[in-house]
């Protein structure tokens, strides 16, 4: 049996699956002041009366890191940067105290300027004097040679008690200095808080006699063992949209092209599945105003949910981009789209008498009947969603993966389906699909699709390998390990691919997920000739290899979809 739990902005959902069937599911309101309590409340509900010894895997999707960053509930981080020659230092503008230190490594990983250890020491003394204790140390080409970052970490932590240093090369193995700075800064800011959350979860699972391995969902739809994710908490941001995408995918016809609409209490998330494959964002996740190297699905969140506030202005119905509490029919104080859906018998939740009461009240303000008022609210919500989807297609069509898909299709077509998940999906998605000219699909279990997406997500692993046959060396960017290879023509591209595959399997074994790793795919591969005196003296291979992002099983193949 598998457990999936999604801690969302409004609700926390949990499912318990056995084979291809959901045997138990539960939904509770999320307590923002205590996400752990919400998670455990949902966990206890779906495992009640079950033999926990039969649980094989637990997967979590959580808004913890998203909330910490969005609400700026993290401690200050100091940046120590080694940009080397090139762009003016004034261009590196981050909302953090910043120290620029001398030193440089070139694009091949060769030291061209020794690290300014004295300047690093002065920076450390200065930040300790001002009361800072977290440092992000990042060099421009540290992913090619991490020795300067290692030296900064050693000098600062051994000299100044209480300082904790996060290094750029451990956060990302890709070039683009500003993105690596942003990712390292956010990792340093959230790592301790995330570690406390993980420790509490592991302790709580143990107290419930759940010994199955625990995983956490990443923004790109892959999972990592919970304890391994301690080193990369920022990877878990936007895991909610990833969970809804995977959940909708598992409940939908296999291999088709669909727009996914996840209508939550506070927001609606939009995603795209192309011929059965979720579309990834090529530029990486944007966190606040900072672009990072965090891989994520190409998703968009809009401020519209079942609990969005409804107001009448100048006699016209308007849905505000904010949540002021639950729907009136669920005990809240104001009108929401959920109340309109309840009044029109499009959702099962809520108290009909209260829905009638609030629609009558709004009707007095609009001068229309309660039925017309409720329908106006639904039409307004649909207009917001349709407009957002049409705007999102402009972004989706800029993605390289979308261009490739169009070439394969040999024609410019739009998705076949609009798949709705979330509590309000059944009431809104049919109208949205009709306006888009697509087939609406509201799967069974749509209300807990996020939790199901977590349960079925496949563990993933990535390795970035750089080989320089002129120097006779290689480096695995993720952990900084290095070694030697034959020089010159004795080492070929197929040798580099085999080495990357071996290193990927080794990392999977180190993280105890080798059982899930069988297939691999090359995400990126470049070869550069090194020429000296008109003669090729070696090659540089840059290879990114990963296990494919996928789901463990589909439920939609056994009639669990319900077309409207």
Q: How would you describe the overall organization of this protein?
A:
By secondary structure, this protein is α/β, with parallel strands linked by helices. Among the domains are: 78-185; 308-398, no CATH class; 462-546, no CATH class. 34% of the residues lie in helices and 26% in strands. It contains 14 helices and 28 strands. Strands 13, 14, 15, 18, 21, 22 and 28 form a seven-stranded mixed β-sheet that branches. Strands 3-2-1-4-11-12 form a six-stranded mixed β-sheet, with helices on both faces. Helix 3 crosses helix 4, helix 7 (239-251) crosses helix 13 (449-456) and helix 10 (370-396) packs across helix 12. The longest helix is centred in the middle third of the chain and has 31 residues, at 177-207. It starts with a strand and ends with a strand. Mean pLDDT is 87; it is low at 557-564.
Determine the number of helices (DSSP H or I, runs of at least 4 residues): 14
| Structural classification | alpha/beta
Overall pLDDT score: 87
Radius of gyration: 26 Å
Cα separation of the termini: 31 Å
Low-confidence stretches: 557-564
The total count of strands amounts to 28
Strand-residue proportion: 25-35%
**Share of helical residues:** 25-40%
| Main sheet summary | 7 strands, mixed
State the shape: globular
